[in-house]
Write a structure and sequence with these properties.
This protein is α/β, with parallel strands linked by helices and about 270 residues long. It has helices at about 5, 25-40, 55-65, 80-90, 100-120, 135-145, 165-170, 175, 190-205, 215-225, 225-245, 250-260, and strands spanning about 45-50, 70-75, 120-125, 155-160, 180-185. The structure holds adenosine-5'-triphosphate and magnesium ion.
């Protein structure tokens, strides 16, 4: 809607996890390196932790996009039974026919893993929203990460979830002890917030940077450096600028937007 007013090719602050817009903050780069290491070194179990809207799903998409000699099964729905989970993994790895019984599904997955190992291909199962997985599913995951040859794990499992996932795993020591790689995403700092906003604007083709430094400080304050909240505020600021026909996005505009978004922003006591 406001794209032509701002000279943009597309909207810079969408809320979908689009890897094309990834701003490589230091912690995103570190987390990415850890996850790639886990996959390519065939570590059994890895974990990516971060609060809501911090960029976990986006980061997993970035990692998948860069995989070489590796294949990923991504499960986005954690509300499944262990058998449904195993079946989903088969579908994700491209099986069209999946057996009915659990022991047969397991046989299929084992055979597949051994063939892929022979071919030099690493396999990773990514479970998003893992804090919502049932205890039974977590137990099944433990068994999956037990599969190994003398040298290699057959599957790497990456659990992606909110911080309560760590609490849940602490209560299951036999699983928790197997987490060999832990990666974390925390909020961006103020300088990173500025770079993040500039990066997304540039990626969308923006010819100018419309925010005043004071406006950025306000955005940082209200978003607390959480990328999804930064996106929501910035998107509304661009709309507001378009409506008011001004190309300068300053503190009053940010404050008006924040009032409108109040309910979503914990910090929004204007
Ligand atoms: N480093 C980043 N660079 C660019 N955009 C990012 C970055 N981190 C997060 N975002 C953006 O923030 C929004 C939220 O990201 P994402 O959905 O990946 O978060 P999440 O941690 O998976 O959230 P949830 O816990 O709700 O699943 C998306 O629009 C995403 O593109
Ligand atoms: Mg997510």
């Amino acid at each position: 809607m406001y794209e032509s007013f701002w000279g943009l090719r597309e909207q810079p602050f969408g809320t979908t996890p689009d890897p094309a817009f990834l701003y490589p903050s230091q912690q995103h780069e570190e987390a990415e390196a850890r996850i790639r290491y886990a996959i390519h070194s065939r570590k059994g179990l890895a974990m990516l932790i971060g609060a809501v809207g911090m960029g976990k799903t986006t980061l997993t998409r970035v990692v998948i996009g860069k995989l070489r000699n590796a294949r990923a099964a991504v499960l986005l729905n954690p509300k499944v039974t262990p058998v449904q989970m195993l079946r989903e993994i088969c579908y994700e790895f491209g099986f069209e026919q999946v057996p009915h019984y659990k022991r047969d599904i397991i046989a299929v997955l084992r055979k597949h893993a051994l063939e892929q190992l022979e071919a030099g291909v690493s396999l990773v199962v990514i479970l998003d929203e893992a804090q919502l997985l049932s205890r039974d599913c977590l137990e099944e995951i433990r068994l999956l990460t037990n599969w190994e040859t003398n040298k290699d794990k057959l599957y790497t499992v990456l659990l992606v979830g909110q911080p309560e996932l760590e609490g849940r795993l602490r209560k299951i020591p036999q699983l928790n002890q197997r987490v060999v790689i832990r990666a974390r995403l925390a909020s961006l700092g103020e300088k990173e917030t500025t770079e993040y906003i500039a990066h997304r604007l540039r990626t969308a083709g923006a010819p100018l940077f419309p925010f005043t430094p004071e406006a950025i400080a306000e955005i940082y304050h209200y978003s607390t450096g959480v990328p999804r909240l930064i996106n929501m505020i910035c998107d509304m600021c661009l709309l507001e600028g378009y409506i008011r026909r001004t190309k300068k996005l300053d503190v009053p505009i940010v404050q008006d937007v924040v009032k409108d978004l109040g309910g979503v922003l914990d910090n929004a006591k204007v």
